[in-house]
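Hello,

I think I submitted the manganese (II) ion job twice by accident. Can you confirm which output corresponds to this input? Input:
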Amino acid sequence: MDEVLENKMILNAYRGVLRSIKSRRSKEETKIIRKAFNLAVNAHRNDRRKSGEPYIFHPLAVARICGDEIGLGTISIVCALMHDTVEDTTITLSDIEKIFGHKVKSIIDGLTKISGEFDFSSSSQAENFKKMFLTIPDDVRVILIKLADRLHNMRTLDSMKESKKLKIASETSYLYAPLAHRLGLFSIKTELEDLSFKFTYPKEYSSITKKLQKTKAVRERFIQKFSLPIKKELDKQGFKYQLKARTKGIPSIYRKTQEKGVDFEEIFDVFALRIILDSKDEKADCWKIYSIVTDFYIPNPERLRDWISYPKQNGYESLHTTVMSPTGKWVEVQIRTERMDEVAEKGLAAHWKYKEKTENDTRLDKWISDIREIMENRSRNTTEFLDEFKNNLYSDEIYVFTPKGDLFPLPLKSTALDFAFSVHSDVGAKCIGAKVNSKLVPLSYVLKSGDQIEILTSRSQIPKEGWLEFVITSKAKYKIKQCLKEERKEIAINGKEILNRKLKNLKINISENNLKLILKHYDFEEHTEFYYQIANNNVDLGKIKKINQKGGELYISSSITKSIKETFESLVKKVKKGDDSILIGDGADPNLDYKLAPCCNPLPGDSVFGFITINDGIKIHRNNCPNAKELRSNYSYRILSAKWKIKLGDAFITGLEFTGIDILGVVKELTTIISEDEKTNMKSLNFDTNDGVFEGKIMLYVYDKTQLEKIIKKLRNINGIEKVVRIE
Ligand code: MN
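Support: Only one job matched these inputs. Its output is below.
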């Protein structure tokens, strides 16, 4: 592209950024933004993105998202414009501090520390996230700008290499989308999920998109018909409002078809109708609308959600009801005001805009301080923490009351003990029971919304291992584990003494190296755990004699001594020749051995990848294996690309699950299709009948995915069969 045109486009993008915070900047602030823009343009003047466009388009786009879609102000815009300069150009943090002051510098410092998003060869992504969360208490804008950065990278992911696409997409749905959800950034969360699905399942994505387009007219007619009486009444009563109908997102349509084993046609018309009011008397008006809606349609009493009286922890306010439409389909109706809608779409930042330093903000503050507490104490196993933390990001909430009548939000399925820990770690650790609605209940009691709970403690109580089986909040889990670890450490000291005595007896030196070999010999990774098991008499120390020794020093022959941290290459060289139906990497080394992962049983035709395990060579997983996301985001450096080199004649085992109505003959037809029409072998067939409905499982050998899909289609057509799904 010629330079004049490029410069014109850059200027245009810059004007877009200014427009995005038009109402929120003074003249003075405009000058600061211009300064940041000029600096960034100059610093990135020689950089280009993978797509070939000038690099500056990226920071400009990120700044625009911050202004337009998150509703942030001048400081954030400046930081977004400068966010990659310290990492990628000659500009330093102290330059930035001199020009823009301390605040901007500390935010950019935070952003720089959590960058390196495309290079995880040294540390796992988990570590990056830990760093990111440590910056929350300093300034939540670090995370908001980071989300904007990720959103733009996802929007422009097309120009990346295939393997990187998958990695970035997995990471996005594994953590960034839940994070956006937790911060209340609903539309960003939805888009991140959508984009991540698009790159992970391109075929499925385009198929659903096409089907949605085809059925658009039918859907619109239904929505119109459904909302007509409501509209008329709202107009009659003089409400100012907007109506929006929202179809389910593509990822959730896909999830539904998979989980329920149903076709697209059965769920494509599931949607929510949103009524957005322009109102001063918010709560009263929302309930008035509720009354109008339920005058026309019968509501499902189980599905009434009043998030106006009890806003969610992320600040979400809305009134939801699900009503029965004349065609017999449930329709969700969401009622909210314009303010509530903006908070729901833009989250936390919109809160600041309305300057309501209310209860909602303190709830978020509490959540952040809980995370910080967990983060700061944690020295190892970030991955485990991340998993727990992630689960908490997405969880639904319940509301319980303290004895004094204070409202306390907790994740759904929290127990009395979770409540105790969320009040205070010491209350949790000393908890012996609880009273719910004045009745004595066990610690494992699962709380319901509206329960009033009082915690009973005892000074002699100590946390028990068994508690971990029923608590669900990450704070409780973490605290319990920490206490147990302390206890284990003390017991481990005895174990260490026992071991040392044994070594003295055997005349083996108590050296760092010998200890390492012994640990490896017994297959332990951690000293403390080993000592603890010794103290509990679970280790046969006699086996030490089997290790070779020379003058008090132990040595183990050959491969065992090699460190687990063997590099990728050496691991790869060690494995033997496989049966070559899969090509790993670029196929340059045909001698790679692999095994098909039992968790997802890949078939020829499935999209697959290789994963390097520590002890068991390379495992081939399906791209949509339930474990894939986690493997990709935490251990991306151990992922190999892989594809099928189909060799006819090899059969693979797979399983199908089906349900249906118990009609004589179904079974016969089913077995005929499998063994005669398709000429495949069944390994096993099980049926369970219950009140006229049967459930069955077949394990069978097929040649590839196409054949399996053909069989599924045929089976679905049998009269009496309700659903057929592949066992994942
Ligand atoms: Mn960036």
